[in-house]
Amino acid sequence: MPPEEPLTGSAGPADTPAYERVEPYELVVNGTRMTVEDAWLGESLLFVLRERLGLPGAKNACEQGECGSCSVLLDDVVVCACLVLGVDAVGSRVETVEGLTASGEVADIQAALVEAGGVQCGFCTPGFVVALHDLLRRAPSADDMTVREALSGNLCRCTGYGRILEAVRAVQWQRGAGVSTGEGPGDGA
Amino acid sequence: MVRSGAGVAERVTRAQRGDRVGDSPVRPDGAQKTRGEFAFSSDLWMDAMLWGKTLRSPHVAARIRSIDTGPALAMPGVRAVVTAADVPGRPTFGLELPDQPVFASDVVRYHGEPVAAVAADHPEAARAAALAIVVDYEPLVPLVDPEAAIDAAPIHPDGNVFRHLVVRHGELGASGDVVVEGNYEVGMQDQAFLGPESGLAVPAEDGGVDLYVATQWLHVDRDQVAASLGLPADRVRLHLAGVGGAFGGREDVSLQIHLCMLALRAGRPVKMVYARDESFFGHVHRHPARLWYRHHATRDGDLVKVEARIVLDGGAYLSSSNAVLSNAVCFAPGPYRVPNALIEGYAVRTNNPPCGAMRGFGAVQVCFGHEAQMDKLAAALSVDPVELRLRNALERYDRLVTGQVLTGAVPVREVIRAAASHPLPVPQDPAGTMMALPGGAGATADPVHVRRGVGFAASMKNIAYSEGFDDFATARLRLEAGADGEPIATLTVATAEVGQGFVTLAQQIVREELGVGRVVLAPASTAEIGSAGSSSASRQTWMSGGACQLACATLRSELIVRAAELWECAAAQCLFDDGEVVRVETGERLLVRDLLVPAPLETTEEYHHRPTRALDADGQGDAHVSFMFAAHRAVVDVDPELGLLRVVQISTGQDVGRAINPVQVTGQIEGGVAQGIGLALMEEIVVSEGRVRNPSFTDYLLPTTLDMPDVVATVVEELEPDAPYGAKGVGEPPAISSGPAVLAAVRDATGLPVTRAPVRPQDIAYAWRGGA
After folding, report:
1. B8–chain A Cβ distance below 8 A for any pair
2. Which residues in chain B are contacts of A173 at CB distance < 8 A?
3. ipTM (interface predicted TM)
4. pLDDT for res A6
5. Are residues B453 and B317 part of one domain?
6. What is B26-67 written as a DSSP string?
7. Could you tell me which residues are beta bridge partners of residue B335?
8. What does pTM read for this prediction?
């Protein structure tokens, strides 16, 4: 039996409050320098983006790195923003779904998700947009199993993934990427 | 009509597909959602906003000796602390009866029951303050066995038996040539919507409160919040914030009352967002069930009698247990003709987590039992399981075991044949990728040991609310000329859009009825419009769709009256034709825009479905308004030595009445199948001695892209006579028989009995070793 600690709906030991105030710090988010003020040391990058920088596109479904709904790019690598401390992102480039939207580079992914019916409640959708963007630039011709593996860290509770996978195929087709049909990993994966 | 291959890739853009009923226009909120611009309830923000946090009981059952909030109030940044002593109005809430305390006061009845709540400047400050509250508990021995609960000393003033329901139908002494019997068990599933419970409460100048929240039914929340706040209903205004999925888990009040109490106490806006672990404690789950069945049949395979005993563990508080039990008992035999039946059901109170609504609502649990029984019976009779189901399938004008005659569309044979007729997948390639084997990336399965099984299951469920409930939905429609003179239709409904796509259907319905292209949906709020009822029970297409259709019909009549006045003819000489009024005799036409010149038009309509009746002492009565049917075939690969599985394909036939938006129907089917597979194979809240062991997505497993097979669907469209456009609901059936089909496939592959959902690796591997 685990110790009977009071439940407050948030993991973490009771005797180590994580709310030490830190000096203002700068993050580079979507190409823009932004100052994070009045922050507490323990705030995740996800919290900082959502609650301090006005960027709620990354979502907060599990805050434990299991669901991918908070996917962002940190120096071009997909990470769960909930598992990165805000202060640890100092000196790195952070790109969120808002930035990818503004640059237009994910417009076809976004349109395909809507067209194919890959959006229902939409809570997982921004995370899927980021993860798909990352996959398709690394492996434009990824086959079905490679796509499934690449997206297996993004949970969706509404769609059963069928329409999302259909959207991936549509984007690959539109981008003219020859999709490999054989077994094994896709090109460049 | 049968639409086949709904899962086949289409390269046609939606613009080519049209935007009326039967087309598949895209959802109006889709683009926003892909850009991260759609405001979910956890995205809300206000100046000077505080953060709320709930303190929950670490005990399963305990007496509370005292609560000292002093240390919390003394902490920096803390603006309000509330407990049971601070509830201004009714101290309890509940969907069917208010039996659940807003905060536990004297007794704690489940692990994680709310005891206090705090509002502070920062979520961490609120969390620390909640932990500083001193609660003196005297732990009690919890009551956790639902069978024992029936006769045990009551753990609540209302007693331990929520409902005991018996269906007695036909000749109770009847027996068959062939008898099969079995015990089955279903675990506790979680809705696991991705958007956590969250909201923002804002104190209002009139002493009331505005609550922006994700819910399935604004008005029923409003009534419960107002009662506990001791405020008149019109001073508690609930506004729908973006809902990140629901699946039944947002039918009950979670943080609504707590949030409003904190905001009113602090005099400032308060935001609360449950973390995932708290979400597991914060909402009701699918009832775990224990089922006993005995089926009797003739040697020819006709069902003679079904006997069943169903025990649902409702947990500590009532929620919607009574209605879930009613469904479980009504649909205990499945979609088959059963002349004689004795079915006894209990929904009981224990110290386990409270259970209530989840997609499929009682029909899911019993489907694992009745479908396993049909397979057992087929084996005993040496007939094909699909043929046995076809032989006994319900038809129109048959009676259910509740005595209700089926007067609507009953395409049971059609859905069974559709599910059975899709081509089977190609056999496993022994030289193929490990990823396609059971266990996937773990690369542990030995292809030589992998066995493939095929299983079949069928199901039925009611649509909308039952047993005499006056179920209705309200819609207001306003037609006015836009700046350019073109008409704009503004639709106001309190219908909770939870992801199901009602917002798309509403636009399609208005375009279909009025020929007006521009259809705007106003925000859903209790301050603007009457109730739409719940986004539950697969009912909004029918109910809110019906209200929209009624409102359109009223405005069409008024447009005709205006045209007749202009033409100085009788209204009866005018017709409405796709956005124009036509004078029949002369062929003259007037556009809607021309008819709106004098003034806008507006109407508010309520749609009620046909009355239903409560079940009587023998469980007899016309309790339901309509029924949906579905069948699923599962193909599953099993490595029995490891107990690992991979679902290869699900094929399905589903009765939808009419597909108003076929792409959205496909999405509902695929999504529901995922939840059915989840319950069959991996999803279970593990509760031991009342304690929840796995309140996280690390330990509560959800199907991923690698777990989901191809889904091949056939949508059976046989119009439902009473329903607007003939459309039944589509949300629940995919989640009902998909799981039982998967377990049937595991039985087929292994020859093991597999009587429990979810089936765990050890259930297979130990039994396999024991039997080998």
Report:
1. no
2. 11
3. 0.96
4. 58
5. yes
6. PPTTHHHHHHT-S-BGGG---TT-EEEEEEE-SSSSEEEEEE
7. none
8. 0.95
